[in-house]
Amino acid sequence: MLERALSLRGRNAQISEEEDEDESKTRKNISVAMRATNHITYKFGVIWPCLFLLFLLLLIFSLIVRSRNLVCVSSYGSPYSRMSVVGMDGLDSDFGTLGVPWCRSKSERAVEWTSKDLLKGLEEFVPIYETRPIKNNMYGMGFDHSFGLWFMARWLKPDLMIESGAFKGHSTWVLRQANPETPILSLTPRHPEKYLKKGPAYVDANCTYFAGKDFVDFGNVNWRSVMKKHGVSDLSRVLIFFDDHQNELKRLKQALKAGFRHLIFEDNYDTGTGDHYSLRQICDQFYIRGGGHSCFKDSDEARIRTKRKKFWEKAVDIDELCGPGEAWWGVKGYMRDDFNHSNKAISFSEHFKNSRFVESVLDVYWELPPVAGPSLTHQTRYDPARASGPIVEDGRFGLFQRLGLSRLETSVFNGYTQMVYVQISEPSS
After folding, report:
1. Fewer CB atoms near the end CB (10 Å): N or C, the chain?
2. Cβ atoms of 121 and 404 closer than 8 Å
3. Tally of CB atoms within 10 A around 239
4. Separation CA 18–CA 299 (nearest Å)
5. Could you say which DSSP state residue 209 is in?
6. How many domains would you assign to the chain?
7. Which of 80-94, 101-115, 246-260, 339-353 has the lowest mean pLDDT?
């Protein structure tokens, strides 16, 4: 594991202190309730205090539900106002019903960072993000993935960072903010400097570009020669970032063959979506809760998917999920690659073999959670039922505001596609 060097631990104790303050207020309220209960018990015996406590709990619960529904405030008829009545539509009760795919690792190891580390990182990253040179990064990374890339690169502190796919250079800029002195290699068909003629872009002075006429695909690079040229002898000290919309199984195998261990995939598309075969699609198997999807149009899953399709742009219904012969793996049973130019049909048995291979080389699999719940970010893209819980949960507007997230335009939160970090090694014999 790369040594972690995140300079966040000693800073920003304000968040935890405020949480402690909230807890102390809660304890104070509980103590008042307990004194009242003891008084009633003395006066009326045991039954009445029980009824009193039940009434008190119901009152507190109703207040919490009401306050959470008041978080979203917007015009009637918009997706945001619809989210404020999610409880009335029953959509919140479906959370997690469709399952959240995950890739099982052979060692069952976990990442070293915690939710508190992520919160501290958010507070530090927001002002950095506000200085980004490309304000409108349409078709590129939004805030969620920018934070995830910055956080992981900063934590892992690699000796060399490699990116496959740079577009206008926003991801290069993020990597540079994470590690100001670390060399970067960028493999991208079109040099980011070409975009400077039409608008904002970023070209890094300490980056070696394999771009334009010098472009070489990741799988065709002589990595032994490149590593020797950059003085890197330990490949476990290298971080690879893939944002090239290529078959992730292919990229995984190429990185493994070259000897790399630490990979980040930006677009880890959900089952039924995306323009390439992703790890999430590969690992969405029948033994995962929500895996082995039903393609029957009158099934419970079909009903739930139809309902959620009205709320989330990336939610898919049965027609979008399932292909001929009720195929649902990959994208309707196809392994997409080469920027959606290659669309190879695969059988479920092949898909299952792919999942077993991935599990045999995985040491760690960690999906970046959404930065905040949809009522806070007003995102309408990803379906919360198919994602892990957000770093800042719905209803915690105070924390959302303290972290500086409320200063950002809502559009920057609408690009989440389950970014994933993996550690890999050769399969055990």
Report:
1. C
2. no
3. 27
4. 46
5. E
6. 1
7. 80-94
